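re: that chain from earlier
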Amino acid sequence: MKKFKKLLVMAIIFAIVFTIYIFNIDKKIYYISLGDSLAAGQNPYNEIAFGYSDYVSNYLKENNLLEYYTKEYAESGYRTTDLINDIENNKKITIDEKDIGLKTILRNADLVTLSIGANDIFYKLGINGLNINLGEIDNIYKYIDETLKDTEKLMDLLTKYCKSEIILVGYYNPIVSSEIARVLEPIFDYINQNNTKLAKKYNIHYVDIYEIFKENPEYLPNPSDIHPSAQGYQVIASQIIDVIEKNIIR
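^ sequence. v structure.
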């Protein structure tokens, strides 16, 4: 009987330790950043540096929550169709000397952050070095509706492979303190409203950063470039972290 009790106690202790271990393993977050130059962390001087996903990764690491992080699928100049092609073609990166496809990474992911679509719109408006082709504005809403179809296709693909948390970062107006900024404001408002609806449809979290950048033009310090400063990226990251704390690690 004593031997049985001893074995029972050992079994209970083992079960408790194993449960704690599993609980801690489950808390670790496999994080992937997807999208364009914002997801890659391009700074206002055409360099890939520390972006919002790097700040999010650091937050997770400092809180002992990070299992894995990559932003290798984020590339400057990417449009929505480029990311769609990456998923459909199962683009591979090397992890621990093994080639792993994007579909597998999405299945493993606990957290995906995404910024995409700005290049689609900027291209149509002729935003290149912040020179605007105002002649395209009359046709821009029709074009946006077309690009939103690509956005929906992307969301459909992402949620097909990733069953965990996806956070979509909204747009900001890259033109500050000018008449052109006011002309573009309803355009970006239209885009953000429609992306919010799509995110809700696919149960994706949406981070709206439009007003933050509008009220803080210093986050865009280079008048010849559309990319945020380190402070701007930190603010985007703080919005993402707020979603993480409320919905993922609560």
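The first strand starts at residue 29 and ends at 35.
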